[in-house]
Design goal:
The structure holds two protein chains of two kinds. By secondary structure, chain A is α+β, with helices and mostly antiparallel strands. Chain A has one domain: Alpha-Beta Plaits. Chain A has four helices and six strands. In chain B, the strands form three sheets. In chain B, strands 3, 4, 5, 6, 11, 12, 13, 14 and 15 form a nine-stranded mixed β-sheet that branches. Classes of the chains: A alpha+beta, B alpha+beta. The interface between A and B is large, with 41 and 56 residues.
């Protein structure tokens, strides 16, 4: 079954796999080797008006049969994390609303993606 | 806006207040039609990201002297193309002062400012703008003709004689209308970019610009072999750096998008430009790069599609344009819609003037002429082998090997091609193909 988003924010972490309550394996820690911000700081530059409704829904049962899990690396906001049982844990709150996740998903119906409700979601100031 | 404006039914509903939608609404309003624009963001441009330059010649007849009021960042007077490998860069750079004075050529903008400005033009002409509202689906009559949109406001159905979908690259309305496939990674690229803050005078010093002048650089060979490219362009007090990569290629690579930006920022040809810059905003957006052959049908009964929703971004290697195509298509859609309403025939046949108009102008003529370009530019040889060939060849031409005499350029080319496993017949064939595509 899909997880509703927002579960990482309960533990104060925005990074997939960092939550102590997460059943998932940690996402490989990328060394921040460039003279730039950490991923968290990078995401903190973006304004998000987080809505109550998750506009991404993932059916982890479908994900368990997925061999690529391309959403995990392709999502520019790093919102998807593999879990130890082969599923996908996700967060909708810091979504750029680009649509990459459902385009790279190779199983019909694993990622249901729609727009956040009107006025909610990402607000680009310098796009 | 707090409420859906009256009247209850409009001549046209336009979905999306990006360049296509605002242009369509502007054309309709000027023709005396009642039109409402539904925008899902809190303000026009809030969901939009682009890769650097707006070419607004298309506005000359629509908003005379638009350059006197447009919210510009910098006027682009330098345009560079960089062919790169991990440690090399060959740059072709054109600078002309003609682009720095009226009527100008290209400008850098923030989409939040530019899209809001263009939407204001439509509102001033009489269009209604409703922000923070998602068009969640199409309304149809018994024959299937589109008659409006459902919105996510309570009781928020908007009925009209027709709907113009300018709802962007993911266009759920064009998908619902059956014009676009639900998910097609092959014809899309992902753009990711960082907006990096630097003082205006530092930008001008580093890039050889006078105040108000801007630079746009397009790059190839900087995406670890994933089909795509990079870009860098200047705003007043920010430098924007990013990459655009094939969605399918990215997915297959296992590489994270922000790591590609990090690579680019670390490149020896780029890093010195960015020293001391801090990230002001990080963003990502899909781009429809399939070109002419991937475009959907542009009309259905009571329904038109324009801009990114119709895959109208031109990604032809040396030409990378989108906002101007969206404006051109939006204007044509608005005019064709108005004419169809006047004739009382909003069927797909009655709206056929839209496509005819695009075929008579730059939108479809450029796309048709350059239909082979997206495939050619993103091809493996172009992306991986020729970048190395070009940089190595240039390096050897200008490396003095005394006491050996100069070997001759043809000999160098042959030697370099061999080293990179490039066959002459491929080189010749690709040269002919390039000439054919860009003829």
């Amino acid at each position: 079954m899909g997880f509703a988003g927002g579960i990482w924010s309960e533990t104060g972490s925005r990074r997939p796999g960092c939550s102590g309550e997460s059943p998932g394996v940690p996402v490989k820690d990328r060394p921040d080797r460039w003279a730039g911000p950490s991923f968290e700081d990078r995401m903190a530059t973006v304004e998000f008006r987080v809505g109550a409704r998750a506009h991404i829904v993932v059916d982890s049962d479908v994900c368990r049969s997925c061999t690529t899990k391309a959403c995990v690396t392709a999502c520019p906001a790093n919102l998807f994390a593999p879990t130890s049982d082969g599923g996908i844990l996700f967060n909708y709150e810091q979504c750029f609303e680009c649509g990459t996740c459902y385009l790279v998903c190779n199983s019909e119906g694993a990622i249901e993606w729609s727009y956040p409700d009107g006025g909610e979601g990402v607000v680009f100031r310098h796009g | 806006m707090a409420h859906i404006p009256s009247p209850e039914s409009f001549d046209a509903v336009v979905v999306g207040a990006g360049p296509a939608g605002s242009a369509a609404a502007l054309a309709l309003a000027r023709a005396g039609r009642s039109v409402v624009v539904v925008e899902r963001g809190p303000f026009p441009g809030s969901k939009n990201v682009y890769g650097g330059v707006v070419y607004a010649r298309v506005l000359d007849d629509v908003i005379p002297n638009w350059w006197e009021q447009v919210p510009v960042q910098r006027w682009v007077v330098r345009r560079s193309t960089m062919v790169m490998t991990g440690s090399q860069a060959l740059t072709v750079d054109i600078r002309t002062q003609a682009w720095g004075q009226p009527p100008y050529n290209g400008m850098t903008v923030y989409r939040a400012d530019f899209d809001s400005w263009l939407a204001d033009q439509a509102v001033e002409a009489g269009a209604s703008l409703v922000t923070s509202t998602v068009a969640t689906g199409l309304l149809r009559d018994g024959t299937g003709c589109v008659t409006g949109v459902r919105t996510d406001r309570p009781g928020g159905d908007l009925t009209a004689k027709l709907v113009i979908a300018c709802d962007g690259v993911n266009s759920f309305l064009a998908k619902e209308a059956g014009l676009l496939p639900k998910a097609e990674a092959a014809h899309h690229t992902l753009g990711v970019k960082e907006v990096l803050a630097l003082p205006a005078d530092v930008i001008e010093d580093r890039f050889g610009l006078a105040p108000g002048e801007g630079l746009d650089i397009e790059m190839i060979g900087c995406t670890r072999g994933i089909p795509g490219g990079g870009f860098l362009y200047t705003n007043r007090d920010t430098v924007n750096v990013g990459v655009v990569v094939s969605v399918a290629g990215l997915a297959g690579s296992g590489i994270r998008p922000e790591d590609l930006i990090a690579d680019l920022k670390e490149h020896p040809a780029v890093a010195p430009w960015l020293r001391g810059a801090t990230v002001k905003e990080y963003s990502a957006h899909l781009i429809p790069e399939g070109g002419y052959d991937a475009m959907p049908a542009l009309a259905a009964d009571g329904f038109l599609v324009a801009g990114d929703a119709a895959g109208m971004t031109l990604a032809a290697g040396i030409w990378l344009e989108g906002v101007n195509f969206a404006i051109g298509a939006g204007l044509a859609a608005g005019e064709a819609a108005s004419a169809a309403i006047a004739r009382g025939d909003v069927s797909a046949g009655g709206l056929a003037g839209y496509r005819k108009s695009l075929e008579a102008g730059f939108v479809l003529q450029d796309h048709k002429r350059l239909r082979g370009a997206p495939h050619l530019v993103l091809s493996d040889r172009m992306q991986r082998q020729y970048t190395h060939l070009i940089c190595d060849l240039a390096e050897q031409v200008f490396t003095v090997t005394n006491p050996q005499p100069k070997p001759g350029i043809i000999k160098l080319l042959r030697r370099t091609a061999r080293r990179h496993g490039i066959r002459w017949r491929d080189l010749v064939r690709d040269g002919i193909e390039t000439a054919r595509v860009f003829r």
